[in-house]
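<amino_acid_chain>
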Amino acid sequence: MNTNWEKTEKNTGILKVEVEAEKVTVALDKAFKKVVNKINVPGFRKGKVPRAIFDARFGVESLYQDAIDIILPDAYSQAIDESGIEPIDRPEIDIEQFEKGKTFIFTAKVEVKPEVELGAYKGLEVEEKDFSVSEEQVELELKSAQQRSAELISVEEGTAENGDTAVIDFTGYLEGEKFEGGEAENHQLELGSGQFIPGFEDQVVGMSAGEEKDIEVTFPEEYQAEELKGKDVVFKVKLHEIKRKNLPELDDEFAKDVSEFETLAEYKEDLKKNLEEAKEKEQQQYRESVVIEKAAANATVEIPEPMVKHEVDHMLQDFAYRLRMQGMEMEQYFQFSGQTEEQLREQMSEDGKKRVLNNLVLEAITIEEKIEVSDEALEEEFNKLAEQYQRSVEEMKEIYKSNGNDEALRKDLTIRKAIDLLVETSQWVPAAEEADTEEATESEEKSEA
């Protein structure tokens, strides 16, 4: 097989492929075996028509499309490997020649991964930030634990307040008619949480148990359901019960209930330690994100739209998965949020473009620095994964191999090493305000001198 790759534009080119006539013959034979069982020819049982009779009656040309479908995928894949290009989208295929006894010639217009011109990526400056843990943060963490341990107590007297959980029935009406998805019974709504349409929860505040009320609200203009966009509706609401949080006392007994510690002081010390560990990770993530963004900003590269689209597809799939883990489907999310899939994609687009840019630049750094991951390092990673998921190392290898992700894991590790390089060669610098203050002080000292 002969292949020829010629770039015609910045990230696009034409791949010309010539496949041997012998392979065309094999593909035609396979196509014949595929279709012969589906045709009826008088005098022959189904599937028993001789090839010569078939060609004479239907023409060998009737097999061409099936033969092309058989031979093209492997030929294109092999041509990609031989030419060393990295396609980022489906190719535009043009069949130039396909005929019995002749070479198969086709061209593929292919958009490939763009070239990256690296700028400065070593010795990057990172502004210092305060990642220390204050007493106020420890107290907030303690109060958060207190909130999580609160009991919901039914309120017999009084009215609903923000922070209460209201148990309600509601039915929505548009121009006097019920609308789909606007009805529920014994729904538990935390007032002030912003779960419902703006204005709904505010009007439940002040209601008493057993009270019925008409609540008038307006759906947002960008609401997903076309028939409800910007429409004024009425919800008939009945409040069955008001539940209010009963917070436990912050004392030694509380510490015993929520932790392994005997005293509140010990529990608070443990909270502080956990916060400090989290802050260390936060500091590392901050430093990594800054150096990656700066390295990306210093590079020159044109981001192809198909790469952004593919990245947004992955982001959307991940978002849908996380929603399902919380017991919600995408359709429900769109209904409650008032967003459409197109709007969510648009919202994710900028972040998707940023991710593509960062990945391209990091990959270019691995090439520039000749970063590689040894088999020993890959083995060590499989050991970590096996321990994490409580499986054998061989099981983890088989899972990654069957999904075609074994080499992807090696690539992820090389990217990780590139990030480590950026971090190790970077340096902390005072924050801009602090730097300005120091310059002003030096200037004053010089003036006095």
